[in-house]
Amino acid sequence: MNEKETLESFLDAWRMKDTKEILKYCQKTWVSERKDKRAFFNTTLFKINVVSYDIQEPVPFAENVVDIDFKLTLAFDGNETTSTHIARLIKESAPYHPDKAGRWGVNPVSIQRTK
């Protein structure tokens, strides 16, 4: 699965508010370190409804690291808003092991960055 497909799957899992599914597309290091994964999603992302998204092309940041801009339309308390966010994806074979043979994972905290 490439970077854009990983981010798309992450955003689809967010739209479905499916913790088990969204964790499949998270960065391995983040998953290994975060003790309160369900609480993180339930108190942040899952409080907001994803209406739509538009993913741009990945921009290399470092070896095995890309940033991807994406336009996100969200609904919260009956209001819709659209903004551009930046997702950081890291390709790892294991926590703390960036590896070109690994799999891409979204750092969930990174998507809170806006442009």
Verbal overview:
The chain starts with a helix and ends with a strand. It is 28% helix and 41% strand. It has a single domain (3-114), classed as Roll (Nuclear Transport Factor 2, Chain: A). It has helices at residues 3-16, 19-23, 28-33, 37-43, and strands spanning 49-55, 59-62, 65-76, 79-94, 97-98, 103-106, 113-114. 24% of the residues are buried. The protein contains 4 helices and 7 strands. The chain is an alpha+beta fold.
Portion in helices = 25-40%
How large a portion of the residues is in β-strands, by DSSP E? Answer: 35-45%
Corresponding CATH architecture = Roll
Give the overall silhouette. globular
| Contiguous uncertain segments of 5+ residues | none
Question: What Rg do the Cα atoms give?
Answer: 14 Å
- Per DSSP, the total helix count is 4
In the CATH scheme, the class would be Alpha Beta
Query: Number of domains in the coordinates?
Result: 1
Q: Could you state the order of secondary-structure elements as H and E? A: HHHHEEEEEEE
Q: How many DSSP E strands?
A: 7
**Structural classification:** alpha+beta
At CATH level 3, the topology is: Nuclear Transport Factor 2, Chain: A
Biggest sheet record: 7 strands, antiparallel
For the terminal residues, how far apart are their CA atoms? Answer: 26 Å
Mean pLDDT: 95
